Amino acid sequence: YEAARNIIQKSGLQGIYRGFPTQLVRDTPANVFYMILYAFFQYESQHWLPLVPSQIVNFVGGGIAGVLSWISIMPFDVVKSKLQADAQGNRYKGFWDCARKVYASEGLRAFFLGIVPMSIRAFPVNAVTLMVYTESLIYLKKLELDEG
Predict the structure, then answer these.
(1) Which positions, given as ranges, span the membrane (predicted)?
(2) Is the pTM of the predicted complex or chain greater than 0.85?
(3) How far is CA 2 from CA 9, 73, 82, 89, 148, in A?
């Protein structure tokens, strides 16, 4: 509540939504890529790893999909974070202005700083999330078939 009040006092209601368009541009393709990678991993594992339990396949597939989707959107995340941190809104004019200034001052590497900690965090989070989701669907489908 206090943070929201401070943002509104300093930047108006518009300040609450600073960086939202960039986050939308970041998250939409990331989620599409995430689910496509996961579905592809599941499909291929049925052919190449038929003896591996589904829990392991779903865990590894979710982790890999999560890390690769995050890597694909890291530059957008950096720009989004810098736009959101620009509390006064006077450092950057928008997404492309921010991206150009970051590249000019810090180089291409700036868009991928933190890739190792991000990967260490993303793998288990996404692995567990998609494993639990998929295994829950399998369990619920079995319940439905047993009742029907």
Answers:
(1) 110-133
(2) no
(3) 10, 30, 21, 20, 52
